[in-house]
What does this fold into?
Amino acid sequence: MRLISVGLLLLLVFPARPVSACEIPPELLANRTFTENQKILEGEVLFVADARLHDFEGRTAAVSGLVMARGLQDAVGCVAIDARGLETGIALRNKFMWEDHLEVTKFPEIRFVLTGLADVQTEAENIGLTLEGELFLHGVARDVRIPAKLTPGDGRTKVEGRTKLRMSDYGIARPAFLFITVKDEVEVRFRVLMGEAE
It folds into this structure.
């Protein structure tokens, strides 16, 4: 069975912007043998923030990455998201998000490094598992565990999942609009399609 994994973090349709090459750290490849080499063919990452009176979303399709695996027993990878590609649908809100909160000039990329898989369960055509790794966001690196679902088919695999993050964990100031401050916790959802790397 082929594994195609994600990366943060990650989901769902704006024109893709170029994202820098996402390389798997050499220390994760040392003394390991992998039989599969997959890359992200397309994907989308979405966040949902609670502004108390209403939710708002930001999303991007500027996602790239690759995964090296040996079935479902062992996998490592890297997923990069262009922080400047995140859009909320309102130009002024985008400007505040990019400049005041994500500080995209200083931190242009969000990166998830996959270090392993856990809790693998096969159900019918889907595989449930937990992606383990390190999320680099706003200059802060934190270990994360992300529940995900793999759906293989036609030589490609769809990977989707969701997790919750606290902005304060990554030193991100919470946005405020009309005297209403966005809640600290945001939900991140991702969906990517992976296939054989050339």
Remarks:
- Helices lie at 26-29, 91-101.
- The longest strand covers residues 36-50.
- Residues 1-20 have pLDDT under 50 and may be disordered.
- The chain is about 10% helix and 55% strand.
